[in-house]
Design goal:
The two termini are 106 Å apart. The chain is built from 11 helices and 10 strands. By secondary structure, the protein is α+β, with helices and mostly antiparallel strands.
Length: 317
C-alpha cells in the first residue's frame, strides 16, 4: 500500500467516525457539514492537499473544535503532507486533547488518538522547536522566522535541524536578527524584549557662585552705635554742670544758713542723677562693641550653588 493510499484509508475511517455510534450520544452531523468533510476527503485523495486544508479549516471554523474535533486529525495529516510541521503538530495535539476530554469511549476514536500521538512524537523527534516569547515589557513586537510572514511574538514554530534566523522589528524598522541552530528534539527560546531603557544621565554638577557682596550691616551698626554713644554722653555732661551748680549754691549759703540743708539735698539728688546718666552711653558702648566683635569673627563667605533642583545657599552669616 502506497503512502497516499494508506493515508486515504485513515481519512476514510475518520470520515466514518462522523456518523453517530452506539457508544456515544453525538448528534449526527448536518448534511452540509458532512458534504464539506467528504469534499475535503476527495480533494485529499487527489493529492490536492492545499484545497483539502482550506475546506476542512472552513468546516472547523463553522463547527468549532468542540463539535468538529475529528477534522483536526485530518488537518494534521494534510499539513504533514505539505511539510507544514508546525500546523501538523498543532492540529494533532488539539485532536488528542479533544479526544481525552470526551466523556464516552470509542475504540476507533482511541485508535486515531494513538495514531496522532505517534505522529506527534515522530515529528517532535525529527524537528526542533523555536519558542518566540512575547516581550516582557513594551508593546507587541513583530518577528519573522526565516522567510515566513511577520507575526507578533508569542508563538512556537517547528523547524528542520540546521541554522536558522529570526528577525525582530520595532514598528516598521528591523531592529536585529538572531541566528540559532536547531537540534532535533530540542527547543530554542528567543527573547524579543527590547533592551532596557538606559538610566537617566546624572544631573549636571552644581555651579557654585559667590554671592554678591551685601552691604556691610555690621559696620553700619557699629558706626550708628558709636555715634549714639557719643551723643548720649551729652546727657552726663549736662548733668555734671547742673550738679556742680547745685553744689556751688550750697557752699555759698554755708552750713549755718537755714537754706543750706535744702540746697545740699538738691545737690545730692542731681549728683545721683548725673551718675545714673552714664548708664545709657555705657549700655550703647557695650552693645556696639559686642556687634563689632561678633561681626569680626564671622569670616565665612556665603555662596550659592545652582543645580537642577534650584539654588542652595552655603556658608554662615
Amino acid at each position: 500500500m502506497t503512502t497516499r493510499s494508506r493515508l486515504a484509508a485513515l481519512l476514510a475511517l475518520a470520515c466514518a467516525l462522523g456518523a453517530p455510534a452506539e457508544a456515544r450520544a453525538d448528534p449526527a452531523p448536518a448534511p452540509e457539514h458532512d458534504s464539506a468533510f467528504k469534499s475535503g476527503l476527495e480533494q485529499y485523495g487527489r493529492g490536492n492537499y492545499v484545497a483539502a486544508i482550506a475546506t476542512w479549516e472552513s468546516l472547523l471554523a463553522t463547527m468549532g473544535e468542540d463539535r468538529g474535533y475529528k477534522v483536526l486529525f485530518n488537518l494534521g495529516l494534510a499539513y504533514q503532507q505539505i511539510g507544514d510541521v508546525t500546523k501538523a503538530i498543532e492540529r494533532y495535539a488539539a485532536f488528542v486533547k479533544q479526544v481525552e476530554q470526551q466523556p464516552y469511549g470509542s475504540t476507533d476514536l482511541a485508535a486515531r488518538a494513538d495514531e496522532a500521538k505517534a505522529r506527534l512524537a515522530q515529528l517532535q523527534e525529527a524537528y526542533g522547536a523555536v519558542n518566540v516569547h512575547a516581550p516582557k515589557r513594551g508593546g507587541p513586537i513583530l518577528t519573522r522566522v526565516g522567510m515566513a510572514e511577520p507575526r507578533a511574538a508569542g508563538y512556537v514554530v517547528w523547524l528542520a535541524p540546521g541554522p536558522h534566523s529570526v528577525d525582530i522589528f520595532v514598528g516598521t524598522q528591523q531592529q536585529k536578527t538572531i541566528t540559532f541552530e536547531i537540534v532535533r528534539g530540542q527547543t530554542v527560546d528567543i527573547d524579543t524584549s527590547p533592551p532596557e531603557e538606559p538610566p537617566p544621565p546624572p544631573p549636571p554638577p552644581q555651579e557654585t557662585r559667590p554671592l554678591a557682596p551685601a552691604p556691610d550691616a555690621t559696620k553700619r551698626i557699629v558706626i550708628l552705635g558709636a555715634t549714639a554713644t557719643a551723643i548720649s554722653l551729652a546727657v552726663p555732661l549736662t548733668l555734671f554742670f547742673v550738679a556742680g551748680g547745685k553744689r556751688d549754691d550750697a557752699e555759698q549759703l554755708g552750713r549755718g544758713h537755714s537754706g543750706y540743708a535744702d540746697a545740699q539735698s538738691s545737690y545730692d539728688t542731681w549728683r545721683t542723677v548725673y551718675y545714673v546718666s552714664y548708664a545709657l552711653p555705657a549700655t550703647l558702648a557695650l552693645a556696639t562693641a559686642a556687634v563689632w566683635a561678633f561681626g569680626s569673627k564671622s569670616d565665612a563667605t556665603p555662596s550659592v550653588a545652582i543645580g537642577p533642583t534650584g539654588a542652595v545657599v552655603h556658608g554662615s552669616f
